[in-house]
Amino acid sequence: MSKRGAAVADQVVKLIVGAGQASPSPPVGPALGSKGVKSMDFCKVRLPALDPSIPMLRRTHGHLLPNNRALFFFREFNARTANLIVGTPMPCRVTVRGDRSFHFDIRTPQTSWLLLNAAEVPIVPVGNKKKRKGASNPGKETVGTLSLKHVYEIAKIKQSETRLSGLSLESLCRSIIYQCRTIGLNVVP
């Protein structure tokens, strides 16, 4: 492949970043910096450019509020994850274009993380971090119990992802129940 073709190709960076915790420090900074993207552009909150000829804002009691026609959206990670619990690990795929512009998709948290939190598995130290951990011998020991209602709610969360929206809720529930067994969780009706 020629150098010209390599410069035009899109590059994908896969990250897992805590909700509302994107910063230029690792893992975001080095991963994006190696692709030529300024990590501050990823972390800071920006509004799209406003056309001064369109009355997009109205002043109410000293505050600027969007009117009904205005569609505000935040492109940056911290703004997109502002409604989530801070620190929730969110898988993110950043696509870097040849001109160093980028766009990204935020996916739902990993199923194992959702399961371990729903089962309220205690947090244990792993290396220099503290996190929830499944059973070391899943077939013989259990670390927690979940009801079918938990499994159903997690399946609904996962089905909201576009890549999983074609799967039926029943098949998602079955795969989640299987994953419960592999991490040492007991599912009760």
UniProtKB/TrEMBL annotation:
Similarity field: Belongs to the universal ribosomal protein uL11 family.
Name of the protein in question: 54S ribosomal protein L19
Ranges for domain Large ribosomal subunit protein uL11 C-terminal: 107-187
Keywords in alphabetical order: Ribonucleoprotein, Ribosomal protein
Organism lineage: Eukaryota, Fungi, Dikarya, Ascomycota, Pezizomycotina
Entry keyword Ligase: no
Family matches, as InterPro entries: Ribosomal_uL11, Ribosomal_uL11_C, Ribosomal_uL11_C_sf, Ribosomal_uL11_N, Ribosomal_uL11_N_sf
Classification via HAMAP family: Ribosomal_uL11
GO annotation terms (biological process): translation
Every Large ribosomal subunit protein uL11 N-terminal domain range: 13-44
Species whose genome carries this gene: Colletotrichum asianum
Any single Pfam family the record assigns to this protein: Ribosomal_L11
Gene Ontology MF term list: large ribosomal subunit rRNA binding; structural constituent of ribosome
GO CC annotation: mitochondrial large ribosomal subunit
Coiled coil: none
